[in-house]
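fwd from M.: "can u put these together and see what the complex looks like"

so here's what she sent:
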Amino acid sequence: MGYDDGDKCVQDLIRRQAKKIFLVSSTDSKDFGWTNQFKPVHVIFDAKEENPEYHERVIQALNSASYEKISERLPTYAATTPHDYLVRILCRRCHITRWARLNAQYPGKSVLRSAPLGKYRATCLKCGYEATDNQNWFR
Ligand SMILES: [Zn+2]
């Protein structure tokens, strides 16, 4: 699970009134950074202590892999913006969906959608329009 499907899954479990949610991974093949928005308790039994160099190499590979995934979809007007600041908005000036730059690092879909109005702002990378309707943004 990643940013989108993971968030959707956890929100579904919360809606069903789950008391506790356990996410278990048997390998380091995924970046679970998106879970931080739910303030999880992390229990780690891992290769970090057994083989720190290998562990670091896997984390680096995963981070660059998820960046590459976003890069594949980016138009040139958004390509130079740091990926952790990117979000998609419905630009009211361009009248279509555009990539925009957040005023802060992407906090995760749930945090973004429930944030109070004005906390996050996104500037259209094409025309400069500044959006504040954070409940409608996505990646
Ligand atoms: Zn625009």
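replying to her w this: The chain is about 30% helix and 15% strand.
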